[in-house]
Design brief:
It contains no helices and 11 strands. By secondary structure, it is mostly beta strands. Strands 2, 4, 5, 6, 9, 10 and 11 form a 7-stranded mixed sheet that branches. Strands 1-3-8-7 form a 4-stranded antiparallel sheet, with no helix packed on it.
Length: 120
């Protein structure tokens, strides 16, 4: 049974930083691309960072230069470092796993989400 467990969310002031972690189990972690999605109230879920099984990364323009995704295959963990946070970054953040190399496309497994709130 695949499990993805996020941690590290919370309340932060605008301009601050947070680091999210996602611990994966029940899968061969090194064979999966990993991603971080977010969903704000009333908005669609969006991919904010992806990392391939080989370590290549993807970011949309909205977070490029502020967010950094990384993975530690020895710990079966993926991270999202978020800097220069803005109120618009407020959302529930989800970790996701995707079979194969590419960090974009349909994801197969999802975590339960962690709330990130950025105050102005």
């Amino acid at each position: 049974q695949v499990q993805l467990v996020e941690s590290g969310g919370g309340l932060v002031q605008a301009g601050g930083s947070l680091r999210l972690s996602c611990a994966a189990s029940g899968l061969t972690f090194g064979n999966y691309a990993m991603g971080w999605y977010r969903q704000a109230l009333g908005k669609e879920r969006e991919l904010v960072a992806g990392i391939s099984s080989g370590g290549s990364t993807y970011y949309p323009d909205s977070v490029k230069g502020r967010f950094t995704i990384s993975r530690d295959n020895a710990k079966n963990t993926v991270y999202l470092q978020m800097n220069s946070l803005k109120p618009d970054d407020t959302a529930v953040y989800y970790c996701a796993a995707r079979r194969g190399w590419a960090p974009t496309g349909r994801y197969d497994y999802w975590g339960q989400g962690t709330q990130v709130t950025v105050s102005s």
